[in-house]
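S.,

Sequence below, as promised.
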Amino acid sequence: MLDRLNQAMEHIEGHLDQSIDVGEVARLAVTSEYHLRRMFSALAGMPLSEYVRRRRLTVAGAEVLAGRDSLLEIAVRYGYGSGEAFARAFRAVHGVGPGEARRTGAALVAQPRLTFRLTVEGSSSMRYRIVDKPAFTVVGLRARVPLVHTRPNQAIIDFVRGIEPRTLERLERLSDQEPRGIVGVTDDGDPGFAEGSELDYYHGVVTSAAAPEGTTALAVPAGTWAVFTTSGPAPEAIQYLYRDAFTQWFPANPYRTRPGPGILRTRLSSDGTEADAELWLPAEREPR
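The prediction came back faster than expected:
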């Protein structure tokens, strides 16, 4: 998978002054566009679209300083319809406008070319299983929250703290299948998985029952799931579970993510310092 991602990065690099078709990039990586976007965001720490934008403005910045072409010619070459649009984008990345940069020879910000390598740490093994699951419903309370990749998500923490214990007890009685008990479910997020973009968070249960009054239901179709489990210090063990699934397991196995919700079941020790976690991610086999 990483070799194919690097081939896709070479394609992007050779087409920075052209329109880049993400579908073609995904074809070169021999995966789906959805999986490419999600994998790239997890591995690079930024959406694919942001990386392309930053690489274009890095190369454009070098041309601005070189002074051979007009600013408008450079703007058009890298996909900007006007000098004003180019200047805004340029300033957002470099902190200075292109005209001023050319006049003063200002120091600019560079986005390096990305190359993906698999680092094998060997400190622990990932426990996983593959589950083919019939259609089910997530029933619970829903909030729109920002996407946070590595830090604790304060919006989710505040939302969960505001749910009455009696409500959670009623919901937990509806749990009748895996993953059992109260779970956190994320869905309907930004296709680029950008940090700070919004998604739906459900705090509820996986069930075949109808949604009671005052709750929200999310219908999930039948499909295959990659299920990862971990135990360790809280909250680090939970945070690393998502990271390791995308940066270690998927690149090393013949599966890719598919559209659908992520489901996290967490159980804390009595003092809150240790956690057992189970993460369900919608998956499918990579085409041969």
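The two ends are 12 Å apart (CA to CA).

Coffee later?
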